[in-house]
């Protein structure tokens, strides 16, 4: 028996860097990255030796480590969960029309803050204003980074140092720790809670008004509903009181929609019902990029625009381009917005997709329930169909390229086909075949 110590036979990092294959990698990817890859290849090899395995060719391993380190971290994922606006999976996939605008605007210079007619400085806030006015009936509009930012900006600009009245039934947590009372505190406004969790009346708001009251904030309940013995004032009733007492009424719609969609209030309806400012997200049911949209009375929007926080919260040109493309697609009603397609696709079409996927993968078609997600329509379940596969495939499919994410139910992996695009069916089938042959 020879008594050799396999750990001693491992090359040093320097020796590895001298290897011809590794030198070629360093030329392509830079020395720093390859050194990191070499260290981690050595570490993995040591782990295997400790576990009693034979050592593999370390230089070869450096190459796969380099692949790993050099590949992008933020990647496309196939969403087979049936949750349409999936917060962990990037919310709304963009419409082709929106992507076209991003490419066009971002690949070169743009008139982001330049008025080509006047040959003078312009405002980035002007590009979307007229589309948003047209789609919501508002006097003015403003776009910031996300809806949390829109709410923060509205409160800071209109109520800093003053009181904001909110119903206890609307002090919501949206997700990831985003809580309305915390945002309110950060804005410098003071929260005045009225009513109870399940019932708040106009008289509760009225009784809480002081000389310091600047604003009534209505907040869409988003991800939950109070059912049973519940009451909250209608927007017109609240608007009447606000108007009489000189208080601004702001309606945070959360998701926000631009046309009828189940029981979600549209921005236009909210403004027509008396809200003076309405805020909503760009990447929930609107199906666009992450953005916060504020529409409403021109003098109020102007106060937001002039507030220093606007500069910190403003949207960048990629967002503005994608949002303009999304809104234009929405207006033309010809171009497809993926979120709306998934929400409205007839169940039969989803079933056909599930059948095709089941045929290609040897899976079974099962009825399932899809959801809107993104804190919208929490009670609505959309009829859907999934392709059921063995649960063992959960992890390998998640590690595929692109990763495929489904849901586990009753010991099976369900790939819900409402959130799959037609073109993704073949891709998923290929990934399943690759996992099975391994
Ligand atoms: C989702 C939501 C927000 C936050 O919007 P983001 O675009 O995620 O920042 C704020 N208010 C309500 C009511 C929401 O549902």
β-strand percent reads: 15-25%
Round the mean pLDDT to the nearest integer and report it.
94
Q: Over all CA atoms, what is the radius of gyration?
A: 27 Å
Number of helices: 18
Bound ligand species: pyridoxal-5'-phosphate
Number of strands: 18
Sequence stretches where pLDDT stays below 50 over 5 or more residues? none
Strands side by side in the biggest sheet:
5-13-12-11-10-6-9
Q: How does this structure look, described?
A:
With about 450 residues, this protein is α/β, with parallel strands linked by helices. It is built from 18 helices and 18 strands. The strands form 5 sheets. The protein has a 7-stranded mixed beta sheet, with helices on both faces. A 5-stranded mixed beta sheet has the order 2-14-15-18-17. Helix 2 packs across helix 3 and helix 7 crosses helix 12. The radius of gyration is 27 Å and the shape is globular. The model has no long low-confidence stretch (mean pLDDT about 95). The protein binds pyridoxal-5'-phosphate (PLP).
């Amino acid at each position: 028996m020879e008594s050799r110590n396999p750990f001693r036979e491992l090359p040093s990092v320097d020796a590895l860097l001298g290897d011809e294959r590794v030198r070629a990698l360093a030329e392509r990817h830079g020395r720093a990255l390859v050194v990191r890859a070499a260290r981690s290849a050595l570490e993995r090899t040591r782990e295997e030796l400790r576990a009693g395995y034979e050592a593999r060719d370390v230089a070869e391993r450096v190459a796969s480590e380099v692949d790993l380190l050099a590949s992008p971290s933020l990647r496309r994922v196939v969403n087979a969960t049936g949750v349409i606006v999936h917060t962990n999976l990037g919310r709304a996939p963009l419409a082709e029309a929106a992507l076209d605008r991003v490419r066009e605007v971002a690949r070169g210079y743009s008139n982001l803050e330049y008025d080509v007619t006047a040959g003078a400085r312009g405002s980035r806030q002007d590009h979307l204003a007229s589309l948003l006015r047209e789609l919501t009936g508002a006097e003015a509009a403003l776009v910031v980074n996300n809806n949390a930012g829109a709410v923060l900006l509205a409160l800071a600009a209109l109520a800093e140092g003053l009181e904001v009245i909110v119903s206890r039934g609307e002090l919501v947590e949206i997700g990831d720790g985003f809580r309305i009372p915390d945002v309110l505190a950060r804005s410098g406004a003071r929260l005045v809670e009225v009513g109870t969790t399940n019932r708040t009346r106009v008289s509760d708001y009225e009784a809480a008004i002081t000389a310091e009251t600047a604003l009534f904030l209505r907040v869409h309940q988003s991800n939950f509903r109070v059912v049973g013995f519940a009451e909250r004032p209608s927007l017109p009733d609240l608007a009447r009181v606000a108007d009489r007492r000189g208080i601004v009424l702001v309606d945070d719609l959360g998701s926000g929609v631009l046309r009828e969609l189940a029981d979600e209030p549209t921005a236009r309806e909210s403004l027509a019902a008396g809200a003076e400012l309405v805020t909503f997200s760009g990447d929930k049911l609107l199906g666009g990029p992450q953005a916060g949209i504020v529409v409403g009375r021109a003098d109020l929007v102007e106060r937001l625009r002039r507030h220093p926080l606007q500069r910190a919260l403003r949207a960048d040109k990629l967002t503005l381009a994608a949002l303009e493309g999304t809104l234009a697609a929405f207006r033309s009603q010809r171009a497809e917005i993926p979120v709306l397609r998934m929400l409205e696709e007839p169940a039969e079409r989803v079933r056909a997709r599930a059948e095709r996927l089941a045929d290609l993968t040897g899976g079974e078609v099962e009825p399932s329930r899809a959801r809107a997600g993104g804190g919208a329509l929490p009670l609505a379940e959309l009829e859907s169909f999934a392709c059921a596969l063995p649960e063992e495939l959960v992890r390998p499919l998640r590690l595929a390229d692109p990763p495929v994410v489904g849901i586990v139910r009753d010991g099976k992996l369900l790939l819900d086909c409402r959130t799959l695009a037609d073109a993704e069916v073949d891709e998923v089938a290929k990934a399943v075949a690759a996992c099975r042959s391994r």
